[in-house]
Amino acid sequence: MIENKTSPWIFWIGFCLLLIPGLVHAYLLMPFPGSQDLNAITVSYYLEKIITPLRIAGAIMVLFYIVKYFTANTLKNKVIKVAALVFYLGTFYVSDVLYKAETMFEEPKTVSFANAVHNHVPESLVILGVVNNGVAKAYPLVYLGYHHKVQDNVGGEPVLVTYCTMCRTGRVFSPVVNGKRQDFRLVGARHYNAVIEDAATKSWWYQATGIAAAGPLKGSHLKELYYEQSTLGAWLAKYPGSLILQPDSHYLTDYNDLKNYDRIQAIDKDSTIKNKDTLVRKSWIVGVIVDKQAKAYNWRNLVKKRLLNDKLANTPLMVSLEKDSLTYHVWNRMVNGKELHFNLDPAGLLTDQETVSTWNWDGLCTAGVNKGAQLGKIQAYQEYLHSWRHFHPGTSFQ
User: Pfam families of this UniProt entry (predicted)?
Assistant: First the structure.
């Protein structure tokens, strides 16, 4: 009877408004079991917009209850309600502080670059390389993998260099939206891919596609900028004057957690899988899109063969891997209106079968009939199989 006279429903409704929206939101935007398989990005988007008002309403109800009714509670009911509020504060710390994407993966506090002479990054590390207006910059994956994004300038143009470790893929975009450069924040993840938000419109963008999935600009595309993924050594061989992103001393422990991330597949560490050539969710592939047609190449097969002549959307392709087994390229095999077929000679040099011309690893013919010709570069992405398949459901495989 005493409990009924204290109108406990006021407290418990307020408590639910404080607790439940935040927990649901955190569940949907973090890789908890089952959460990433739900088609819930729109729910997540609008839920984030109303969490604060719901919490304010809940706090008002709880505060009203405490002022008006709390003293009339029995000792048992007082303890229960205090314990509930302590529980809420704990969940709030976990969902909004400890495991909030922006907190877990902070942006660099200091973004510094060095040339090859003053560089402290091992040349064996894999990087994303960007060239613009004669300026080359390299961004090591072990740093990008923690930060998820670096907002920078290359050759006087703004760039948004991104990397998602859950789907193992990088993208480089122009951060210009509706004519204005935007700052982006990391929101969380959906379908195991990082979601970022622009400051002006608050739209949510998938990192793997650059498509706005929710918000005022839903359906829009960020402009994608060409990049290459290679070892730093291979990159410097082509661009010796490149600047290299240096490690931020504030995050050395976080970087160390990604040690060997750029060279060892998850399948290599799984003792339950005997045939390591088996394609599983986290198998590496090289993905290519030509005229809206997508194709994925098995990384392990590429490591063995190192060079594949193929066609996609009637475009002749060469998919190749350098001797380091980490630096990959995709080029258009059409030169001066003729389709060329390539192979590696006994010395490991690229040659075409039609003219026996020699080509370097920048797609430039250095000797032979075609000397001076340049193969057209085609953007390609290293990615987990499950991610590529999700964002490109009609993809073909090789």
Answer: DUF3179
